[in-house]
Amino acid sequence: MPVRTYVSSESSRAKGVGLGLAVASAIAFGGSGVAAKPLIEAGLDPLHVVWLRVTGAALVMLPLAWRHRALLRSRPALLAGFGLLGVAGVQAFYFAAISRIPVGVALLVEYLAPALVLGWVRFVQRRPVTRAAALGVVLAVGGLACVVEVWSGLGFDALGLLLALAAACCQVGYFVLSDQGGDSGQEAPDPLGVIAYGLLLGSVVLTAVSRPWGMDWSVLADTAGMNGTDVPAWLLLGWIVLLATVVAYVTGVISVRRLSPQVAGVVACLEAVIATVLAWVLLGEHLSAPQVVGGAVVLLGAFIAQSSAPARNAGEPVAGSSPERELSARGTAA
Predict the structure, then answer these.
(1) For residues 81 and 189, what is the distance between their CA atoms, to the nearest angstrom?
(2) How far apart are CA 60 and CA 134, in angstroms?
(3) Is the Cα dihedral 14, 16, 20, 25 positive or negative?
(4) Contact status, residue 79 vs residue 197, Cβ threshold 8 Å
(5) Which residue from 250, 254, 257, 126 is spatially nearest to 182, judged by alpha carbons?
(6) 272: burial class by Cβ within 10 Å (0-12, 13-18, 19+)?
(7) How many other CB atoms sit within 10 Å of the CB of residue 327?
(8) Rounded-to-10 torsion of CA 305, 306, 309, 312
(9) Mean of the pLDDT values across residues 190-212?
(10) pLDDT at position 334, please?
């Protein structure tokens, strides 16, 4: 059995790398709010911060877009889907939702995406989903409810909830599109090229939505307060662009390639935990006991989901991890 042992070892190694990348993506995405909040408090509109984030990242990835310009001819629908759903859709719908309902409620609804991904895999793709993976999602969503303390402000606003659900659906699109590639026999597109064009298209869409020509640009030349410490606004913007967007999207997409949409989606729930912990450390926003317990439950749910995914046999697409996953292109996140 040496060949089978070798394949199993390679699959386990790829799964471990994928899990590490998914956690790194959650950390990177989770830090976006901590860096963005001081800028917003300094006078920038939230949508303008989102536009700066996506447009700055698009400019960083522009050389890669030029290098992979053949994707415009070979995968135009994929690029459009990733840009509209995975980049612009999640951001725009989330910020529209929090203008009507509490942030915690909007975040919880948005992170129903892992459950929706399982539904997509099971009922649309007709691929098996393990009971343990489903249990992991239930635990993660339940723990997330504690992290965001959803009970502290449940004002029912039908439109606000629909907007948050739209953000969740866009996040599903991100995870599903990130898993596309070679199943149809086509050569899998380079993930960096897909991300680059997704950011460029997202930037165009967000320009129309946020209208940055009315932004107070002088804020970026000043400092912003972070828990009593003055930090250069340009440094916070660099954090948002390079770490919370470029690094977050690249590691997130590649993690889906090595894991699967439903597993990576559950691990992405760690973003809320990480965002809360970073806000505690850097912004002085203290955690309550339910939040600490909820964070532990999210971790448990993510662990159960990622450890229960079955390996995929050659030629048989299953909802599990594999070193051979093909992809195209995060949520995300808020």
Answers:
(1) 14
(2) 38
(3) positive
(4) yes
(5) 257
(6) buried
(7) 22
(8) 150
(9) 90
(10) 41
